[in-house]
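Good morning C.,

I know you're traveling, so I'll keep this short. The sequence:
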Amino acid sequence: MDPEGKTPRTVRREGDEPGDSSSDRGYLDGQLLIAMPVMGDPRFERSVIYLCAHSSEGAMGIIVNRPAGSIDFPELLVQLDIIKKADQIKLPENAETMKVLKGGPVETGRGFVLHSSDFFIKDATLKIDDGICLTATVDILKAIAKGAGPKHAILALGYAGWAPGQLETEIQDNGWLHCDADPDLIFGDVEEKYLRALRKIGIDPGMLSNEAGHA
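The tokens, ready to paste straight into the viewer:
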């Protein structure tokens, strides 16, 4: 996590008002990116990414379907001195079952929590969409450990980032599809998330080709 409360620099477009649809303006924050089968970058192969920010200055997102291997959330709480090892058995259920994911190749030593909007820390939580927020401070982990955190949450280590215009170019080059996000695709079981995301937009993975186009 980020003990100093710093979050990756994300940008909001000037003149944005509540209720503005970023997708109507060509920006995709709050939506899901789905890697095309022809994706040449192994870091993003078969990945589903929730876009936390997208503007003329670049984009930032969290991969939501790649488990972080052997990293266990209760053990991570111990490593961060949030709880004592003996207290692991006393954790609330949502803390015991919290998913730890590889959020992307940038700053893999930092933790980012995507969570439902029923939890908010002033000056630390970024509201992305009506139901989804991002918090990158240890305070949210402390709250989860006490049973006072959000109803739904995932912890991602690292994030994916794009320079200005880079994501748009990758989409035009047939690297990504995109679709509306829903809580199940963000917080649900990691297994089969990629195929479920494709089916959400009516695509049979076997029918995809190198031809340009996106949802």
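Safe travels,
E.
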